[in-house]
């Protein structure tokens, strides 16, 4: 298992597994850079100026900030993971009132270089999603509740069928506690550079980050304080081999 260390809005660590176990240096969220950016992982995690409890609102869905969070800057290095293996993402904390889905995407990097890729050109395909788990009692049990119960950890499997190469992983929680009104949902995207080895031949089509969601998607504009018969997880369809 490969493990990545997160503040409230950030991934705090990652643990990846494959034929060989590799443990990566934990994310560092308390180091101040000279330009004012706080480093959440100076190696493989993209930096962001969202050092508070900041989120991206639906009015920002057409803005580059929705891609890898506020003013996201490329990480210099990549974590090597094996296709078909699991990655465990560790958040530092998550408030239990912020119910919602957890979604994860990958995007192949242009020229196979994630350290310099223009984030607005990345085309993301969804590799994992989980939303409403149990609707028996309002506001329901959500993926975020499972994340909290697991010690603020979330496990994602890298598809075994995708081509080897360098990818940006976009891991995101969408909080719905205020989503009953327009512009009320809260997106917390995080990006990590991965080098996938031992892959297959699939090169999935993707969606630009600024086209993943709209403000009125049924899974974005929704009140969770009612009995829901179903919940439509936002974003493009889940990738399948």
What does this structure look like?
A hairpin with a 6-residue loop joins strand 9 and strand 10. The strands form four sheets. Strands 5-13-12-7-8-14 form a six-stranded mixed sheet. The chain has a four-stranded mixed sheet with strand order 2-1-6-11. The chain is globular, with a radius of gyration of 17 Å. The longest helix is centred in the middle third of the chain and has 7 residues, at about 145-150. Helix content is about 5%, strand content about 30%. It has a single domain (about 1-210), classed as Coagulation Factor XIII, Chain A, domain 1 (Distorted Sandwich). Mean pLDDT is about 85; it is low at about 1-10 and about 15-40. The protein is built from two helices and 14 strands. With about 240 residues, it is mainly beta. One of its GO terms (cellular component) is extracellular region. It is found in: Secreted. Its cofactor is Cu(2+).
Detail the topology: elements first, then pairings:
Layout: E1 2-4, E2 13-15, E3 31-32, E4 38-39, H1 65-68, E5 79-82, E6 86-90, E7 102-108, E8 123-130, E9 132-134, E10 141-142, H2 143-149, E11 153-157, E12 165-175, E13 186-197, E14 207-208
Parallel strand pairs: 1-6, 5-13
Antiparallel strand pairs: 1-2, 3-4, 6-11, 7-8, 7-12, 8-14, 9-10, 12-13
